[in-house]
Every structure is written in structure tokens, then in C-alpha cells.
Amino acid sequence: MGILTWIVVGLVAGALAKLIMPGPDGGGWILTIVLGIVGAFVGGFVGGLLGLGGEATGFNIPTLLTATGGAIIILLLYRTFRKP
Q1: Is Membrane included in the keywords of this UniProt record (predicted)?
Q2: pLDDT confidence of residue 57
Q3: Which residues span the domain enclosing 48?
Q4: Is the whole-model pTM more than 0.90?
Q5: d(CA 76, CA 63)
Q6: Would you call 60 exposed, middle or buried from its count of C-beta atoms within 10 A (0-12, 13-18, 19+)?
């Protein structure tokens, strides 16, 4: 159930990351959703390494914050390494 939860939370986290960091990213909302899902997994992994809990226990505030943080990290990396 953890992976499915991270995917669903990643959809929301991608949208939140885009609202927090607006900008001209190619790909539109599809890319935002994909980056959000990847970011949710990254946030869960980093949270697990830091001892904050990397397991998605459901759709709650700590899980959403972790996923959104990961999505922001991925969005920053995407903007840094994409070709202009």
C-alpha cells in the first residue's frame, strides 16, 4: 500500500510544488504530475534516511509535506539541468 499511497500523494505534491515555485517549465501539468510522483518517492527516501519516517501511512499532513519537499527538490534539479 505504501507505493500506491506515494503515487497518489505525489500527484497532489507535484501541483503544490508548482504553486510554490511557479515558472516556465515545459511539459505542462503532465510533467508536473510526473515530477511530483518522483519527488514523493525522493521525499520518502530522504525522510527515511533522516529518521523522519519514509513510510506513507496514508494521506496526512506529514506525508504530504514530505512529498512536497521531495517534489520541490526534483523541480529544482529539473530546472537546473534542463536545456534552455
Answers
A1: yes
A2: 62
A3: 2-81
A4: no
A5: 20
A6: exposed
